[in-house]
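Objective 1b: paired records.
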Amino acid sequence: MRLRTHALVLAAGQGRRFGGGKLHALFQGRPLLSYVLDVVGGAQRRGLVDGGHVVIAANDATGLTLAAAGGLNTLINEAPDLGLSHSLRLGVEALESQTTEETGAVLVFLGDQPLVRLDVVEALVAAWRQGLGPILRPRYEARPDAPGHPVLLARSVWPRARQLEGDRGFSIFNAANPRETVTLDVKGDNPDVDTPDDLKALEGFSR
């Protein structure tokens, strides 16, 4: 049996450092979030993921519209102020209850990374199917000292999501055994957009 993977896009952040509305800010004429959703859609068409969920803040009508246009399911985060870890926990717990054991891993995307690429998703899924490890992360050439995204989490480590709180993020997944996390070296870069200056800095990039 070929184990399946699922996509989880974390898109409930308030973007305070950006001044609000970050995920719907325009990059090359399109909302930031739309680029990530496009990659998830491409991964579905290639058979890399069998579906996707997007965690969205309550009352984010634009986010709901974008997710629906991409054919993805939505999960509402009623308390986005609790941080990224809260969205991650909500998403993983939902997938535990809504997917079967055939879904053996989740790929976690961040909604504020418009340069995310399909070839990186393909490399992560291939490495997981080859048994390289239960937690896989890309290491981008431009940021060798920074862990990258998306992150692949095998179903065996999902229960650790219940321990997430505050800003711990992904740290809980490799706390028990750091050797569980395998990094894959990839070309290019995939920066977060946290501020208007970050967005401006992307103007010279092409996807």
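Objective 1b, second protein:
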Amino acid sequence: MEGLEGFELAPYFERWVLDNPERRHLLPHIAGTVNEPEEIAYQEDGKLRHYKYVEWVGHHVRVTTTADGALFDAHEDSNYTRKKRRQNS
């Protein structure tokens, strides 16, 4: 998949991101979000959430990776965008 070279893909990612037409527009932004995040949040289960604001999308994109770095999930996170705007006000 173009833009995802070098990333391992979890089955969940393949099913809920690659096969989901409503999320495919995020694919060009996934590598940048993982490689140059604004923030990383650690989950108790070992997964990491990578956040980056994407102007074209109009919200932050959140990409979740497994503890070993495989792409697990990706979606727009408008709640995170609103939270960041409140913090910066």
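The chain is about 30% helix and 30% strand. The chain has one domain: 11-88.
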